Amino acid sequence: MVFGEYFSIQTQGYSDIKDITTGVQNIVLKSGIKNGLVNVFAVGSTASITTVEYEPALVEDVREQLDKIVPSSMHSRHSQTWGDDNGFSHVRATFMGPGLTVPLSKGTVILGTWQQIVVIDHDNRPRSRKIFVQIVGE
What we know:
By secondary structure, this protein is α+β, with helices and mostly antiparallel strands. It has a single domain (2-137), classed as Jelly Rolls (Sandwich), CATH 2.60.120. Helix content is 30%, strand content 39%. The protein has helices at residues 21-31, 56-69, 77-82, 87-96, and strands at 2-11, 16-19, 36-43, 47-52, 99-105, 108-109, 116-121, 127-137. The strands form 2 sheets. Strands 1-8-3-5-6 form a 5-stranded antiparallel beta sheet, with helices on one face. Strands 2-7-4 form a 3-stranded antiparallel beta sheet, with helices on both faces. Strand 5 (99-105) and strand 6 (108-109) form a beta hairpin. It is elongated and about 50 Å long.
């Protein structure tokens, strides 16, 4: 069986990190699928999906390190071409990837005790981010 559904979340950009675990789990419950795989995908080229211990200090650490790896002030040909100054956001999203697949067992997404699913919006402005969750299983 395959089930998929979108949901949206408001973000502030500049690698704003939002916990979406509950939204994902709610779609899993709605699907009725008990065992299989859950794919979570950020629609767009300037956002990423990953897991992290979602607590304020670590969220700030991740944002700080992303800015060290790919500074928001970096010169980019993309920004020069399009004039939108968000080339850095495309690079961050490319390095991190747009999606994540996690196991599903007995109707529950399998995550560690301190592990949450997050969306990271790397763009340079607030956005309404569309997330697609697809469950494949039985």
